[in-house]
Amino acid sequence: MTYRLGVDVGGTFTDILLIDEATGDTYRAKTSSTPDDQSVGVLRGIERACAEAGVSMSDIAEVFHGTTVATNAILEGKGARVGLVTTEGFRQVLQIARSFVPGGLAGWIIWPKPEPLAALEDTVEVRGRIAADGSVVTDLDETDVRAKLAMLKGAGIEALSVSLINSYANPDHERRVGELAAEVLPDVPVSLSSSVLPELREYERTVTTVANAAVQPQVARYVANLAGQLRESGVDGRLCILRSDGGLVSADVAADNPVNLLLSGPAGGVTGATWVAEQAGYPDFLTFDMGGTSTDVALVQGLTPRVGRETVVGDLTVRATSVDVRTVGAGGGSIAHVPPLTQALRVGPQSAGAAPGPAAYAAGGTAPTVTDANVVLGHLPTDLAGGEITLDRAAARAAVKSIADATGLDSVEAAAAGIVDIVNENMFGALRLVSVQQGFDPRDFALVAFGGAGPLHANALGRLTGSWPVIIPPSPGVLCAYGDATTNLRDEAVRTLVRRFGELTDASVRDLLTELADKARATLSEQGVAVEDQRVVYAADLRYHGQGFEIPVPLDADSFGDGTTGLAALRAAFDAEHQRLFSFVLDAEHELVTVRATAHGPRPQVSAARLTGGGPDASHARSGATAIWVDGAEAEAGVYDRALLRAGNVVTGPAIVTEMDSTTLVLPWHAATVHPSGCLLINPVDHPGEEN
Amino acid sequence: MARLIETATEPLRAVDVDVVTLDLIENGLRNARHEMDEVLFRTALSPGIREQHDEFPLIANRDGKMVVGQFGLSIPDFLANFHADIEEGDVLLTSDPYSCGAAISHANDWLVVLPIFFEGRIVGWAAMFGHMSDVGGKSPASMPTDARTIYEEGVVIPPFRLYKKGVLDDDALRIILNQVRKPDWNRADLNGIVAACRTAARRVQEMCTRFGVDTYHSGLDALLDRNHRAMKVLLQAVFKDGETLSFTDYICDDGLGYGPYELKMSLTRTGEKVLLDLSGSSPQAQGPINYFINENLIRMFFGIYMITVADPQILWNDGFYPLVDVKIPEDSFWKPKFPAALNARNHGIGRVFDLFGGLLGQTNPDLLNAAGFSSSPHFMYSGTYSQGERKGEWFQLYSIGFGGIPGRPLGDGPDGHSLWPSFVNIPCEYLESYYPLRIERWETVADTGGAGAHRGGNGVDVAYRFLEPGTIAIHDDRWLTYPWGVNGGDPGARGRKWLERADGTTEVLGSKVHDVPVRPGDLLHFVTWGGGGWGDPLVRDPALVALEVRRGLVTADGARRYGVVCDERGVVDEAATDALRAESRADRPDPLPIFNRGPDIGTILERALEETGLPAPKPPVVMP
Questions:
Q1: CA–CA separation, A49 and A481 (whole Å)
Q2: CB contact under 8 A, A90 and B39
Q3: Alpha helix (H) ranges present in B310-427?
């Protein structure tokens, strides 16, 4: 009997999911997160889940963990004090950044510039220069380096980052600075830009390296701490951490490159959604994870999440591979407001957060939020079965009435419906970013909704995107933990080339692929994955020579066998992608910018739970009815208890399906069918006025 | 006047649009406009657009009124000057400011306009212009600093149908591209602009399908009206009836040795309308600095300044235009007579920021910023590789530099940033990979930001080491007059450029030069100007001043301008600081002036050679 354990630590709750690998049976535990030391909450949750399952902690083979330690260090400005070593003449690389000021034509008037992640007073320059082709223009002045490192030591830095000009082309100087730092600053962890991100563009490489250094001490401490406590509690299984790209790495590897963990949390959601959608039989889908303050969306095609090269956390954008998750500041806590001058109805990005929270929580909040609007509309019943929070409908109405008054809308319900429509539209905008704007038609995709508020808005989003079915996973609140437990080990090796196709041959690319594959495989082998179980996938970032942006294209290593078809195939694949994205191709020469090899371990064999079957009749799960406001009128909605639903049951809208941590709204002219895997599949049903 | 060919003749109906649908349409338009940017950035080849984002999108309603965009260009003026039919599938192109009512203002900007059809009827317009790195003419990058006529500024494309009913006019495009030095760039950038406009058209058509064409059309009217109502309230609140405000700023020289040019703007509110009057500005320049501007663009600049602070989420549009009258004198800097040269109008555009800041700030403390980095200075370098694997290959760089954002009511001005939306710098490593250059320094210069309670941002020193023989060109300004400070803040430092030749000699360069030969080993320092300071420098926290000394943003000597005495390590001598502050307070006027422009123009001219290494310009002469 072996068990896999998924652990997702969120801002408020820690979710634990214990999966019996043989049966697919799951046991859940939810405990409060312990921000000061997250491992406390994790251990408590594991103990609880094991107790519920009647399992000994020593039966746990593996622990898979999505962590927000790195994310929070950045968001809360609590990262390590980082020293930065730059090339002479470039001390202000983070101060100047890309000279970019967000906003419109007068945006600079109102833009508060964030402070650089490595303070300027902790940034030093060293003499020594590499040219763009990697040749040495000026030797590294080691005396100068030692003196500057000594200054940083005196300043009391906690982590060191080194980012020298053109180090992506030749890392020698950076490595030497690293060696000298080991002498001068023996206990300070060092991040070299040529290791963290060997790519052209000094600002992006530097900020990524500094971010890595800033979170490294905390991540290393946390991982070591958690591993130790797991051992003490009798868990012999291996600890793996989920990276931003949705792959798992052993805890040690994760701690080396923590900048790759910044989106570990959202990646868990996407991988969880992938597992769920696979069970339900929908390989192409959009994910829609709506929480209290923000919503994350992503696109998954062929059960493979789209991966992007940028990671955005708060004000910080770094170049690190991550699941292409887009975030909008729209959630249940988003506040509706009406600027007096324009009398427009705005929702967000300000949020009532957890404190004081929506007015309906009766915890001191008075501002009208999306949650309040849902309460007014009856979409969120106040008498939730098993609900921990009782919602104050009167307070919600009072809050939303302020919006009705300011906009002149003729009822509180109309104002509430407006708030919901606008927040839905904002989230629709995010879904368009990952679909339409990337050349994908959302109507070709399903929509997997999760997070605390996702299932409430999912049907409406399905209507906007035309993405059917809308899939509501079982336990939508702990989906991330599912993702943590059901993905595979992964590592990637990357090389930036910036070479025109004329400068390349199939043979030279093949050699590079082999080298990168070996490097990526080696990490997996070290983690105990047998070579025959490893699968390597290749991708290249291409552009037309002279373009500033690359497009990632999958690369078929076999086509680089021994002939001359490899580059030709790559060229054709890029042209097709460019045509799809931008509706034209250019006659310019192709350029290979980056090549990536990703080694995958085997997918875990986790069986899915199966619900017992039943007919379409869902009346046994119906607990009553409630009045809701929908599509401009009042309607009676059936209320269903999800725990009682059987496979094949059909819940016809308008209806509300309740469960422990979530509420699903099924709109009129839609119906939710219960899939054997436990998912609800919402589809439109025929009706004359519906365009879908 | 263009004749619009529509197959559907039934007029659109005005319908009521609820506030929520309105916000949905607003959001859809905003998304479409950002998508336009994205499409172009990702496909363009020229560094100016690709890396720096020198382009501006717009979506207009059926009548050509901008409903979303960030920088007006006037579709009505364009259509009034286009004398042919416009049909579904047509895509129009022009680069001639004189043939489109100054919808664009120099020949480097290629403007694409396309009608958006829905069910046989025009429901809007998508337009976008982008700065082409080269459009031919006598100097690389097509911006000769000594041009007297537009004929010297490369190919000038009159408005014509690049696509006629969806079919590309390949011959015309071939003739145009034959005039330019980097036709592959122009072709790719133009492709991207057309693709971006088509994307906008698709999004608008989708909205017409989703909401119904009548609702969409009426929704745009309501959005325009929203701006109109908002502005009406603002104007009443901000400006006293009948009072005239004025502000004057300068362009230092015109590239031909004349200057400074006075730019004057006055504002008077009468009832619900205001009049913006540019009378009193200098007559048109001999050189290429004229900024040919149309009335609508002045309205747009004005509106953006007025409303940015009021509702930053608002979708900016043309709706308030009827509330603003504009008077621009003929044959002036702002309305030069054809065929006056126009290429270097970027200083004029930039200075509009300062003009509005200074004008409107006199009434509204929320808007009173110091003078900022009010230009987009250009650096160009071109030549032919003399060795290596690229031997014989032509290289050409056009790039935009950045300087100090001014001290603001909100806080310090960022160092070395862009006053323009969406612009970014070209990474050093990119330049070094694609051009025979080495960047030896890319840092802001301490003390160049004006001292103030909120410090002005520092200017930037970029030092370019040339590795191949070639020529360089520079377009910059504020080398003579100062970026002024406000509310007691000091002016920022002026811009400077000099060449350190490989032979050891040093040569000061003017702020507008072209065809300057450079040889391998020569080093150019391109130092931009700092932003003015905001508020009394003597109230700035000495600890913050000291921290900035440690950061290298202010020198120990420069700290004295804040009345702070400290050493190079940023250790403050508190007693000496108190004494210096008391002494400085005693020495200065009370109250402090609202505007501090440094010395008067006479003194500035008198000291020009001594202080800048460049002779004072001659007074501008009126063109015959």
A1: 13
A2: no
A3: 346-360
- Tokens 């070709």 correspond to A444
Query: Could you tell me which chain A residue has the CA closest to the CA of B49?
Result: A548
Identity (one letter) of the amino acid at B96? D
d(CA A666, CA A656): 6
Q: What is the C-alpha separation between B387 and B246, in angstroms, rounded?
A: 57
Residues forming a β-bridge with B268: B244, B275
- Chain B contacts of A400, Cβ < 8 Å? none
CB-based contact (8 Å) between A440 and chain B? no
pLDDT per residue as tens digits for the range B377-420: 999 999 999 999 889 999 999 999 999 999 999 999 999 999 88
Peptide bond before residue A356 is cis, with ω within 30 degrees of 0: yes
Which string of DSSP letters, residue by residue, matches B505-547?
-EEE--SEEEEEEE-TT-EEEEEPPPPPPBS-GGGS-HHHHHH
**One-letter amino acid of A198:** P
pTM over 0.90: no
Which phi and psi (to 5°) does residue A279 adopt? -60, -40
Q: Spell out where A184-294 has E strands.
A: 190-192, 238-242, 248-250, 285-290
**DSSP H helical segments within B364-488, as ranges?**
428-434
Q: Which of B429, B444, B465 is most worth mutating to test chain A (most A CB atoms within 10 A of its CB)?
A: B429
**Number of CB pairs, chain A paired with chain B, less than 8 A apart:** 236
Could you tell me whether strands A82-87 and A159-162 are parallel, antiparallel, or unpaired per DSSP bridges? Answer: parallel
Domain boundaries A490-600, corresponding CATH code = 3.30.1490
| CA distance, residue A238 to nearest chain B CA (Å) | 42
Confidence of residue B243 (pLDDT cuts 50, 70, 90): very high
ipTM: 0.91
Residues in B closer than 8 angstroms to A99, CB to CB, are 402, 416-418, 423-425
The residues pairing with B244 across neighbouring beta strands, listed in sequence order, are: B268
Residue B624, class by beta-carbon neighbours within 10 Å (0-12 exposed, 13-18 middle, 19+ buried)? exposed
Q: Cβ of B313 and A344 within 8 Å?
A: yes
Joined together, the tokens standing for residue B151 give: 């004929």
Residue B73 has pLDDT above 80, yes or no: no
Three-state secondary structure call for residue A46? helix
The burial class, CB within 10 Å (0-12 / 13-18 / 19+), for B619 is exposed
What single DSSP character describes residue B179?
Answer: T
**Is the CB of A337 inside 8 Å of chain B's CB atoms?**
no
- Contact call for B442 and A426, based on CB within 8 A: no
CA distance A136 to B438: 13
CA dist A312 → A266, A302, A319, A565 (Å): 12, 25, 9, 37
> How many C-beta atoms surround the C-beta of residue A585 within 10 A?
15
Q: Does pLDDT of A61 surpass 50?
A: yes
Please state, in angstroms and rounded to a whole number, the distance separating the CA atoms of residues A273 and A53.
24
Regarding predicted confidence, which is higher, B177 or B315?
B177
Instruction: Say yes or no to pLDDT of A386 above 60.
Output: no
> Three-class SS of residue B494?
coil
Q: Which residue has the higher pLDDT, A30 or B469?
A: B469
Question: What is the distance between the terminal CA atoms of chain B, rounded to a whole angstrom?
Answer: 32
Q: DSSP E strands: which ranges in A57-189?
A: 60-66, 82-87, 123-126, 129-130, 136-138, 159-162
What local confidence, expressed as pLDDT, does residue A238 receive? Answer: 81
- Do residue B195 and residue A584 have CB atoms under 8 angstroms apart? yes
Q: How far apart are CA B496 and CA B461, in angstroms?
A: 9
3-state secondary structure of B368: coil
Angle ∠(B451,B535,B377) on CA atoms, nearest 5: 55
Distance between CA atoms of residues A655 and A652, nearest Å: 6
Q: Which two tokens stand for residue A282?
A: 């929908």
The answer to whether the Cβ–Cβ distance between B414 and A200 falls below 8 Å is no
Q: pLDDT value at position B311?
A: 60
Residue B316: list chain A partners with CB under 8 A: 104-105
Average pLDDT on A665-681 reads 95
